[in-house]
Design a protein that fits this description.
With 384 residues, the protein is α/β, with parallel strands linked by helices. It has helices spanning 35-43, 48-55, 58-71, 99-103, 125-137, 156-167, 187-199, 251-257, 308-318, 329-334, and strands at residues 80-87, 108-113, 145-147, 176-181, 218-224, 230-235, 266-278, 282-297, 303-307, 338-345, 349-353, 357-372, 377-380. The protein has 3 domains: 1-45, no CATH class; 48-247, Rossmann fold (3-Layer(aba) Sandwich), CATH 3.40.50; 256-380, no CATH class. Helices cover 26% and strands 27% of the residues. A hairpin with a 3-residue loop joins β7 (266-278) and β8. Bound molecules: guanosine-5'-triphosphate (GTP) and magnesium ion.
Length: 384
């Protein structure tokens, strides 16, 4: 069975609209990219609609999660190393819920990718400790948490050296190295870097800003271990994270929400009753004598500030225009019903807003957050 070298989908000649399609005249036995990969790589194919329709049905999401678990069902039975990749801007929802079930007793290293997006002076030690705590709460016992940037190639060499050393350790006869994680965290970009370094192959695997790029396991041979067994570095499809709108947002929205460069923090001094809109996605009503909110979000995301008494009116006149994303009512509905959560802040606090970034709050205040169900807000007190 031949597979597309860019996304791992089984090559097929019957349905042009599905991943894996190649024309019948093409030689399916040779290394080939499917039509979808070709269009993503050369023509910026926008396939986010596929993700949107997928997320619209609870049954489809459950089916997708089941397929995901099936695909990785053997990992726990192998002696392997698992690299769990998360997005450095989304440390809470990046953990796959059934992670322990998937990996069994195999060692797990956590790679917090896209660390290049953190502001230059950000202290990462406390965030690292927090990631260790989260992994513990998921049943993983790992002290191996690394901040990396595949884009800036930061710390990637060190990870590669360590993982290849592992293959040859007598007490650790690992065969395969799996790279797993939610959609769009950068798994395929990481593997492309390994290929660039060790095989001088450039951008073999298809990568993209949009979710669900890799469709199946992609095994890359990386030599033999100390027992003479063949070892593979294995790219995996992303876990469909239902707690982040990045899993299904249209390309237009991704371009606003996903920072291109390191974040330039925007700080607002607030008092009395004020409201802040993050685009049209999240609304924050803040009551305070005096407090400051620093936003670690993409500089393309419009932050609108108004008095709470005028908030509703401002929203009605600016929604789907200045207050974007969402751009349409359909997109808004896709992100789920709006819920409210109240936070009483009396010491420096962060609110991590999945898919968007985080807010660092200083001073005493009450914050009422309004967000759609696909945006998860997590509070912590870690120092930044
Ligand atoms: N800023 C930044 N962006 C990155 C980094 N690594 C990857 N990206 C970008 O993240 C997006 C997703 O990368 P992929 O490698 O396709 O992610 P993936 O995890 O393989 O995604 P799926 O196959 O959909 O699960 C692309 O636009 C990459 O360019 C990084 O270190 N920093
Ligand atoms: Mg991928």
């Amino acid at each position: 069975m031949s597979r597309c070298i860019g996304c791992g989908a089984v090559l097929q000649t019957t349905d042009e609209l599905l991943p894996g399609y190649i024309p019948a005249s093409a030689d399916a036995e040779s290394k080939a990219y499917c039509k979808r990969c070709f269009m993503i790589r050369h023509h910026n194919l926008d396939y986010s609609e596929d993700n949107l329709s997928l997320m619209s049905s609870k049954e489809d999401v459950e089916k997708k999660h089941k397929e995901y678990l099936n695909l990785l069902q053997n990992v726990k039975n192998e002696h392997c190393l698992v690299l769990l990749m998360i997005d450095a801007l989304d440390i809470y929802t990046g953990f796959i819920p059934q992670i322990k079930e998937i990996v069994g007793n195999n060692p797990v290293w956590i790679l917090a990718n896209k660390a290049d997006l953190y502001p230059k002076d950000m202290k990462t030690n406390r965030i690292k400790e927090q990631i260790e705590k989260i992994s513990k709460s998921c049943g993983l016992d790992t002290k191996n948490v690394f901040f990396i940037s595949c884009l800036k190639e930061k710390n990637v060499d060190m990870i590669m050296d360590r993982m290849f050393v592992n293959l040859n350790k007598k007490h650790y006869p690992s065969n395969n190295i799996y790279v797993i994680g939610s959609t769009s965290v950068g798994k395929s970009t990481f593997i492309n870097l390994v290929l660039k370094k060790y095989a001088q192959t450039v951008d073999l695997i298809t990568t993209s800003m949009e979710a669900n790029t890799t469709m199946n396991l992609i095994k890359i041979g990386v030599g033999k271990n100390n027992k003479g067994n063949d070892c593979y570095l294995i790219d995996t499809p992303g876990y469909l994270n239902t707690q982040s709108i990045l899993s299904c947002a249209p390309l237009k929205t991704l371009k606003v929400l996903v920072p291109k460069n390191f974040i330039r923090v925007k700080t607002y001094q607030l008092k009395d009753e004020q409201t802040i809109y993050l685009g049209g996605i999240v609304r924050l009503d803040i009551k305070s004598v005096k407090c400051s909110l620093s936003f670690y979000v993409s500089d393309k995301l419009y932050i609108h500030r108004t008095k709470t008494m005028n908030a509703e009116k401002a929203y009605e006149s600016l929604k789907f225009k200045e207050l974007v994303p969402p751009y349409t009512i359909e997109e808004q509905e896709m992100y789920g019903n709006i819920y409210q959560a109240n936070y009483t802040i009396n010491q420096p606090t962060n609110l991590w807003i999945s898919g968007i970034g985080f807010i660092h709050i200083k001073g005493d205040c009450e914050i009422l957050v309004h967000a759609p169900s696909m945006v998860k807000v997590t509070e912590d007190k870690i120092e930044l």
